[in-house]
Design goal:
Oligomer: single chain
Largest sheet: 7 strands, parallel
Number of strands: 7
Mean pLDDT: 95
Number of helices: 9
Order of helices and strands: EHEHEHEHEHEHHEHH
Strand order of the largest sheet: 3-2-1-4-5-6-7
CATH class: Alpha Beta
Shape: globular
CATH architecture: 3-Layer(aba) Sandwich
Bound molecules: NADP nicotinamide-adenine-dinucleotide phosphate
Structural class: alpha/beta
Length: 264
């Protein structure tokens, strides 16, 4: 069975690749950095004896995205799609480069929508138990995210989109599973790219990519829709669901005022 992983050149994507190869999947690894993809594919082939193909693609490019979608729709052995590619930015939306914000929407929203459509067009008629899609969202989906507005908004979209798909699949009694994975802070390259100073985040809030992916795959087997790894974040999401919106907005303003961006 084939697992397609976007954003497979670092962080969560690499760990998904290792763990899915260990579960017996062949892999299609997608990202922009060819050298990284090649070295991960080599590692997968050597250590897990799985077939690991790479596809160098910028998923914010329309033509490239259409080609990747066609590849997923036509893969006869498709079992799993992990929509994992993503990035964050830090700073007020009105100060941000709108082209970068548009790219984020393209990657988190349009690419997820297109590739999910291609995967479901393939998987639903085959009605294979254990097949499906993991959409890598974020705990940021559950609350407003000042200085990271597009990020929070696109991840909120991802949660609602995945929930809608789950309902449609249930209506059709389809065995195909969809998951919105909603982690908090994970030790990956994500924060370097976003320019976030890791030292301002309490140590207890950091998780490893290994822990997060293990939780995701274990929950996928149980067909859980929303997966929030770690008890601290489970508690946070539970509270956010109970608290009035006004109080959450007040807390968000205070937290954003306390955060000082690193110099340089
Ligand atoms: N780290 C966290 O704290 C955290 C928390 C919650 C959710 N997440 C989510 O987890 C997912 C994975 O992030 P990560 O933490 O593993 O960060 P990461 O190490 O920076 O990985 C991001 C991946 O996305 C790929 N990517 C970025 N832009 C792309 C594009 N235009 N086309 C194709 N691939 C692209 C990158 O590959 P190339 O640069 O080679 O293209 C890389 O493989 C993201 O969706 C992120 O929002 C992360």
């Amino acid at each position: 069975m084939l697992a397609v992983i976007t954003g497979a050149s670092s962080g969560l994507g690499v760990v998904f690749a290792r763990k899915l190869a260990a579960r017996g999947y062949d892999l299609l690894l997608i990202a922009r950095r060819e050298d990284r993809l090649q070295s991960i594919a080599r590692e997968i082939a050597e250590q897990y004896h799985a077939r690991a193909e790479i596809l160098v693609a910028d998923l914010t490019d329309d033509a490239t995205l259409a080609a990747v979608a066609a590849r997923i729709r036509d893969a006869a052995d498709l079992g799993l799609l992990v929509n994992n590619a993503g990035f964050g930015t830090l700073g007020y939306f009105f100060d941000a480069d709108p082209d970068v914000q548009a790219k984020m929407h393209r990657l988190h929203v349009l690419a997820t929508m297109r590739l999910s459509h291609a995967a479901l067009a393939n998987l639903v008629p085959r009605a294979m138990a254990g097949s499906g899609i993991i959409n890598v969202s974020s705990v940021a989906a559950f609350a407003p995210s000042p200085q990271s507005v597009s990020y929070g908004a696109t991840k909120t979209w991802m949660n609602r989109f995945t929930e809608g798909l789950a309902i449609e699949l249930a209506v059709k009694s389809s065995p195909v599973t969809v998951q919105a994975l909603c982690p908090g802070f994970i030790l990956t390259e994500f924060h370097d790219a976003a320019g976030l100073d890791r030292s301002v985040i309490p140590a207890s809030l950091w998780m490893t990519a290994d822990f997060v992916v293990e939780e995701s795959l274990r929950s996928f087997d149980r067909r859980s829709l929303f997966v929030v790894p770690g008890w601290r974040y489970k508690l946070l999401v539970w509270m956010l669901r109970l608290l009035p919106g006004g109080l959450i907005r007040w807390g968000s303003i205070r937290a954003a005022q306390r955060y000082k961006r690193p110099k340089g």
